[in-house]
Give the backbone structure.
Amino acid sequence: MSVEKKQQRFDHELDQLGIRIKDADQLKVRDDVFDEVTLLALYKLVHKKWISVIGGSISTGKEANVFYAERDGTSIAIKIYRIRTANFNTMSAYIVGDRRFSNVKKNRKDLIFAWTKKEYANLARARDSGIPVPEPLVWDRNILVMSFIGKDECPYPHLRNAEIGDPGGVYDCIIGYIDTLYHKAELVHADLSEFNILYGDKPYLIDMGQSVTRDHPRALQFLMRDIKNINRFFAQRCSVQSEIEVFNAVTGLDTYEP
């Protein structure tokens, strides 16, 4: 089947679901994203009136695609984890050891469904603790619907691409997020870097599917990696604390022993 015919079929399927397409030229069909399972999940979310408009791609990550969408005129974001091409082994490393998902089956589809649920739960815990993150609205199968972080239908830039007027202040803010996340949400982001922070009026943490609870066997290892990533990014922009100093201050340990 030609790409043009695939696009026509995809547009027809979305139309049958009752989804209005915005910026259709940007919403190109991708068989690894919009498979039958995903279309079924979309149908349920549309039927429950969580989605009324779907637009162009916001980002394409290693495991998922994020699309701009609307719910009754309000901007939202739809994150779709790719069932066919997501890295099964990478996801398993963060699921194994998380007591919340100890009963998850080890097949690809169930793992990705659990991962989607895990990101929803992590975002909710972070938000309840006062961390600026997208508000998780609903999830179904491999789709997560959340609030849109941006302005005028444009997402805020990633930290790596943003103009930072006060690097020292932003650095202190993010270190504060790490501490609050650890103590109040009892989570470690586990993939924190300039690629997983949006910057607008303030920094926003995103991409929390891999985040683990403090009692995860690799939580301290992931925490130190997060601190190293943030220090690396800011080291040439402002004065930073030593990694061990930050780690010990967050964990309350006297020595770094991950």
The mean pLDDT is 87. The chain has two domains: 3-151, 157-251.
